[in-house]
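Archive transcription. Copying these from loose printouts into the bound notebook so they stop getting lost. Printout 1 of 2:
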Amino acid sequence: MLRVANLDDEAALDALMKESAAVLFRRFYDEERATSAVRHVPEVDRMLLADGTYFILETGGGCRLRRVEQARPALHG
């Protein structure tokens, strides 16, 4: 089932993002940098979570994160 993520999903999304980063970062960085990056880089953006940007695809007791890019002005330069 595909649904819009909400603030109650934050912990699960955080864990999923870190798990994904742990796999992906090791493809591009040495072990020390990848390990450090997993602790500091993947972070759920609560504003994007609250505004419906993140979606959850629930499958057999697990979930997958999807982020949808929306047309909106950039918040930075």
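Printout 2 of 2:
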Amino acid sequence: MPLYLYRCSECEAEVEVHAKMSDPPPTRCEACGAAALERRIGRTAFALKGGGWYAQGYSKGGAAKAGAAKAEAAAPSAS
């Protein structure tokens, strides 16, 4: 279920609500009872990590950098 953030414009209280997308939004502040809740935008937990389609194909110079890294790894070291 998505996590929605709301802030009361009267008392500045913030509340997190776990709800289905089809559930109606809360209308009253739990702290003061006012009907002044505003939906806030929060951070997401989505992150792209490691190699993959973006790093190797769509970023600026990504394919060239990926090819150069592979060539360096394949070359014998000069020690």
